[in-house]
Amino acid sequence: MEIREYVETLDREGRALAAAAEKAGVDAAVVTCAGWRVRDLLRHTGMVHRWATAFVAEGHTSYHPDGGLPDLDHDELLAWFREGHRRLVDTLSDASLDVQCWSFLPAPSPLAFWARRQAHETTVHRVDAESALGGEPTPVAPDFAVDGIDELLLGFHAREKSAVRTEEPRVLRVRVTDRPDTVWTVRLSSEPPRAERAGRAVTGQDTAEVSEADCELAGPAADLYMALWNRVPFPAVSGDTSLAALWREKSAINWS
Hints:
Layout: H1 3-24, H2 38-58, H3 74-94, H4 110-131, H5 142-155, E1 170-176, E2 183-188, E3 194-197, E4 200-201, E5 215-219, H6 221-228, E6 236-239, H7 241-250
Parallel strand pairs: 1-5
Antiparallel strand pairs: 1-2, 2-3, 3-4, 5-6
């Protein structure tokens, strides 16, 4: 996806998040995030938006702490969220393609990283906001969902921080059923997971696709995307279900 497409997605998803939050009310429970109310979701996502904006707008080239959660509620909190989201969209839209700032996952450029990361951050939390309304959330586009699975498996869980580990080597496969030949193979061990997509490793070196997996997670791209972010159950699990349980227990990406 192009930077422009990510920013357009961020714009649309953030506005949808705010609309769902306003309709549900800040006291409503966020079904997909145990223990959270809508106010917690708005405070967290709005803080992340401002944190991301600062890197691009102010050119921080090393880690810079976030500004903390606001002591706001109800209409003031919604207005604060919308203001921060708008500033993030405008900052990414107006930034130079060669802007230099800190980022934390591989990407063609810092701007590409922040546009992609915030598009996915906001999409997942939009689904959270809609969960407070009950019913089915607005579907995530399959191609965008595939991109998000890529970011999660080849980016987040390639880092030393990943806690998805096993004592003995195991193989977990993730298969998208509505996008032919879209398959990730995740090798688990006592080290960070090593993920490959369609037979090509994250290192870029050719490798043969593993013919057997200990466990396979399968389903439509949008469902797998949200399941891998621990928002919904896995559509289908075959093989050793303990690996699916391991993912549920250990894969959370925590704010720190």
